[in-house]
Amino acid sequence: MAQKRILVGGAGGFIGGHLAKHLKAQGHWVRGADIKQHEFTDLGLDDFVLGDLSREEIVKQALDGIDEVYQLAADMGGAGYIFTGEHDAAVMHNSASVNLAVLENGVKMGVKRFFYSSSACIYPERNQLDPDNPMCSEDSAYPAAPDSEYGWEKLFSERLYAAYSRNFGVPVRVARFHNIFGPQGTWTGGREKAPAAVCRKVAEAQDGGEIEIWGDGKQTRSFLYVDECVEGICKVMESPDFAGPVNVGSEEMVTINQLAEKVIAISGKKLTIKHIPGPLGVRGRNSDNRLILEKLGWQPTQPLQTGLEKTFAWVSEQVEKAKTASK
Ligand code: NAD
Ligand code: GDD
Q1: What kind of architecture, by CATH, is found in domain 5-180+224-248?
Q2: Do domains 5-180+224-248 and 183-221+252-286+302-320 have the same CATH topology?
Q3: Where does the record place the NAD-dependent epimerase/dehydratase domain (predicted)?
Q4: With a 6 A CB cut-off, is 203 part of the ligand 2 pocket?
Q5: 164 carries an active-site annotation
């Protein structure tokens, strides 16, 4: 395998951190870039640019001498961050500014291939009202009607990458991630997604107590373990002719109540679920893997249970560390 010079935008974050480490382990020269260092691990990369990728001097430094860009930097979070409406302007401005700067400068500086991380949040709300039968096939994206500004920015940026590819002839690969979880992801602070939030609540609860879940818990989702997400990203990026956008997600759909029950069982505690009002997002969502299977002969296989066991163990450690630190 020929060694490439790779930039991972958002390497200080959850998926970007796992991806950058994987690419480094594959033998590539890897530079990360992010507005923050990784909170949970030493990435051990060849280089790291600490700064805002929407700023010209930073993005030029990050892109210098780079063959391939994996662009994962974004202003993002779970339902508690993207569905409250409070962060809409920041989400749209920050994420779009990064994508504009990375593409415009990357093309001028000779980048040979881009990967862009889009989201299941681009799919129309109208197809995700029935929790038992959500539709998220790639060709259902239009007429567009995402239920969040985060989803609209992702759709805009998908189109931006496609436009640069058409007009400048640079290959672009796009994946739509469906709720990725695992160790070293945000687990507290307001941006955490349901798997980490539920793991934290269960880890913090006293045996015999209760945990709070937003809504009636009957809303559905599928969750993809981060190692399989990294595998999917590499399959999409390496594809010789299939550009996407394509779903990278699990088809093992569960209700949020089922997710909580699984985590409670892993913990060995006896806990009850209390339903409280909260930001909900779409009523049902599941990955549709027909296209990725047809085009790339790949789809994830790991059961949710396996990833949840690893994630619960990691989140429990963080909860313990935080308790010790506050004493
Ligand atoms: P994350 O928040 O852990 O990582 C994103 C990183 O981008 C953060 O470390 C953040 O500091 C960085 N960043 C934000 N603005 C920046 C800027 N201006 N300059 C430089 N860095 C900046 O999120 P993640 O879960 O690792 O997500 C990675 C990508 O995948 C994002 O684009 C996200 O929208 C997309 N995605 C994630 C999920 C998921 O379930 N995690 C689902 C769909 C799509
Ligand atoms: N975060 C969180 N925390 N969600 C909870 C909680 C809680 O304590 N309790 C119940 N939920 C419910 C939410 O109300 C929502 O209905 C469901 O669990 C899933 O929430 P999240 O995991 O936070 O987000 P999401 O699936 O709606 O959207 C996420 O996935 C997209 C891709 O599939 C987000 O991370 C998006 O940014 C991402 O693009």
Answers
A1: 3-Layer(aba) Sandwich (3.40)
A2: no
A3: 6-249
A4: no
A5: no
What is the predicted ipTM? Answer: 0.99
Instruction: Say if ligand 2 is within 6 A of residue 78 CB.
Output: yes
Ligand 2 centroid distance, CA of 193 (Å): 5
Of the candidates 317, 203, 204, the one whose C-alpha atom is nearest the C-alpha of residue 267 is: 203
Mean pLDDT across the chain, nearest whole number?
97
Rounded to the nearest angstrom, the distance between the alpha carbon of 82 and the centre of ligand 1 is: 13
CA distances from 35 to 32, 121, 142, 160, 188 (A): 10, 24, 33, 23, 19
Instruction: For residue 81, give the ligand nearest its CA.
Output: 2
Q: pLDDT digit string (tens) for 3-37?
A: 999 999 999 999 999 999 999 999 999 999 999 99
pLDDT digits (tens, 9 = 90+) for 66-111: 999 999 999 999 999 999 999 999 999 999 999 999 999 999 999 9
Q: Report whether pLDDT(223) > 90.
A: yes
* Dist. CA 284 → ligand 2 center (Å): 11
183-221+252-286+302-320 folds as: UDP-galactose 4-epimerase; domain 1 (3.90.25)
Closest atom of ligand 1 to CA, residue 180: 40
Cβ 197 under 6 angstroms from ligand 2: yes
Residue range 176-188, pLDDT digits in tens? 999 999 999 999 9
The catalytic position among 70, 150, 161, 225 is 150
What ranges do the domains of the chain cover?
Answer: 5-180+224-248, 183-221+252-286+302-320
Of 163 and 325, the one with more pLDDT: 163
